[in-house]
Amino acid sequence: MISASSIPRTIWIHTILIIAVGLLALYSASFNNNVVGVSVFYDQLFCAVLGILLMFLLSRADYRKFFDVAYIVYGISVFFLVLVLVMGRQALGATRWFSIAGVSFQPSEFSKLAIIFFLGRYFSQRRPRLSFDLSTSLRDLWGDLIWPLILVGISMALIFKQPDLGTAILVMGIFLVMLYAGGIPLKLLGGLFGILGLALPFAWGYLKPYQKDRLLVFLNPSHDPLGAGYTITQSKIAVGSGELFGKGWLSGTQNQLNFLPERHTDFIFSVIGEEWGLLGGIFLIYCYGIIIYCGFKIARHNKDPFGQLVAVGIISILAMQVVINIGMVMGLLPVVGITLPLISYGRTSFMVFAIMLGFLLNLSKKRTIF
Fold this sequence. Notes:
By secondary structure, the chain is mostly helical. Helix content is 68%, strand content 4%. The chain is built from 13 helices and three strands. Helix 1 runs antiparallel to helix 13 and helix 11 (268-301) packs antiparallel against helix 12 (305-329). The relative contact order is 0.16.
């Protein structure tokens, strides 16, 4: 058992361990990379130092200030999502980035944080009304469910337009989890899942050709083995060849011989699996699991509805990204372009998760809540 007093230290230790594993894996992934150079490692190292400093500062700030600016942050995130479609930089068939003072910025990553704070404030102010029954008025249904769904749907639509299917799915996941944490009955949540399930076949026509190919590869692994299925095939070979103890740092053949595309971003867990083996992968998952456990403990015992809901949102997005990324790398889930938190290369993603963990650390020090 992890005591309340040891939660901050536990989060710090396991976060730093994850960052260290990520830096080792990223150096290996960029060491012999003929697409990106080792400069991405030094870039991530700088982000790691800055992110740890940011976590430290946020852990000592007044977390209620996030409540005050939650709606403003959400509005800024929507503005950036529109802006990136107008003046963004296209790469790999998607328009997800633009530069601010020469620094690349990905608005969809920032939108995850913005939506968590927005929903945290919105639902915390409506408790305990988030409890629907037969006597629920249309006005309550609009305010408690439909209106926040519309606002979240705006962000989802803009993200999907980039296109970024994976992040759009994550945004919907955040909404459903925080809606449930806000007090919505399980039956109604099940009904929402049912509606979403019925709508899935109609979404097929809105997918890009490469997105359809990824889903077809998931359903039929032998589909297009030299095209859409190439990366996932190489990924599974890399993970499987690592066996129990791995081939050793800088010694992975799929990685060092450039057989594995996107190994510094979405498929970096393949590098970890090949070079550190099953034990290395389990160790990383354990570190994530400990942070998620601490986050749930913070959320469970927090008496402030805003802090509780935001904590739930943070640990939910962390858990979803870990599960989806590792699942797609191993061929257990479709490839949807989800990064591995604090491991995959990406400035915006790294800093956003540093802010999230800084918020958790802040809540964990309010010992009066335990």
